[in-house]
Amino acid sequence: MRPVHVRGEVLSRKRVGAYHQITLIAPGVADSARPGQFVALAVGGATSGLLLRRAFAIYGATPAGVYGGTVQIVVAVRGGGTAWLASLDQGDPVDVVGPLGSPFRLPARPVSAVLVGGGYGSAGLFGLAQMLRGRSCRVDMVLGAASADRLFGELEAKRTAVSLEVTTDDGGAGRRGVVTDVLPEVIERAGAGVVYACGPMPMLRACGDVAASYDIPCQVAVEESMACGIGVCMTCVLPVVGDDRVTRMVRSCVDGPVFAADRVRWDDVGTVPADALGATPARAPVAGAS
User: What is the pLDDT of residues 254-265, one digit of tens each?
Assistant: First the structure.
């Protein structure tokens, strides 16, 4: 189904550690939402100078009910736009477009899956966990963050997953360290056949490397700036290798945000590789130029 553009409103907002969990009434958006997809919100109000939308992974979606469909997101305050969202009260209007992007691909048969979340990036994993369990897949989870207040979904993960490992950079919760310190142990214990990851780009790359060392696939939901969400502004392009082994500059918002980790050219993110399809070749130096 195509994404819809609706004038939604805030149903509820609550503080969860360092984050704000917001439930939006957005009829039609939740109807076709799938894990891995996101919504793009206009921020700042009708008279704001903040023109670019903000993208948020869909934490939860309820297509039916008293309010005709709700979507949950998790907001980390980083600037004026997210601060505005975090200040909204029940009933305040929010302009919503969604669901956007490509979802996680589900296994064709029951398989053991390890889900890895970094910070509030873990919000995009819980709908996936439910769908995997509905397909008789084993689900184990690893959650990591810089500190305990920046973890998200620890209690829900304990209820959802067969096992949960928690890491924090400062050792304030779980084990001191990063998610990839414990990921090999979890893969081996679970006999995992696939890894899914949401979180900061360095974490995604590291998870892909660990999965590759066990010769199992890894799907990652990348964190790139997605100002429009519909593939127009080209702010979220990154180099990805296709099935034909050709590198293309793809748009995270419409071609992603979910990609196979081993197809993303992590060293070249933020650049246009010279061998990418359509890249402008470097000009030869002009003879006699100093």
Answer: 899 999 999 999
